[in-house]
Amino acid sequence: MNDKQHFTFTPSVWLVPGLLLVCMWMVWGVENIYRIDLAKHGINPRTFVGLQGVLFSPFLHANLQHLANNSIPLFVLGTALIYFYRELSLKVLWYGILFSGLLTWIFGRNSIHIGASSLVYVLVSFIFFKGLYTQYYRLMALSLTVVLVYGGMVWYVFPSPITTGELQISWEGHLAGLLVGLVMAIHYKTPDYIADMQYPWEKPDFNPEEDPFMKHFDEHGNFVNSPDTEVELPAHELQPSNPYVYLYKPSSEQEK
Fold it and tell me: Rounded to two decimals, what is the model's pTM?
């Protein structure tokens, strides 16, 4: 089955992450325009009222920098999720918000936890582990790209002077997102159109002698020019381009 039939870029690819960003920025705008503090509606661990933050916390941010730092990775990773895992994307987003929030509510420190970073960690974790699990070259390349760009985020999933100091970063929310993404990558079945994909050389009717790429290799795996691309050069072009030969002479011979 041709992967081009599934990996197509349509408006729906960016529409959902775009709507999430619009909601996040609208909430921040309302807070600043009307001078109100909505952070109290974040996750307050092990309190009944704090359960509301499971749904509200991804849309609440401490300041403009906090919001901007979450906006770019959320949009990029959300778009990648929908493009490559269209059938699973809404489940990953919804359950990612729900379960990462619940885990934060269960074992988070006694403080208000806000921000979309938990969802960002869900996306990073799911895309990375699912790509490795499928062993499909496009998704594995996506996993490696995620590691290169966002691999440094792993340092913020554990308590440290950085996360528990003046910055007060919710490492509990980050760890919850990482775990939820990993569990969903294992739990959700790989879509059939990915699981059933085969490389050309894996198909029963594959003939290496007719494959354009394989023609460049002999039976021992050595690279050779294919018969279709060999060109006979004129005799004068077969001569060495450099007619000079350099010899090393010991100093004693040079003085003679």
Answer: 0.76
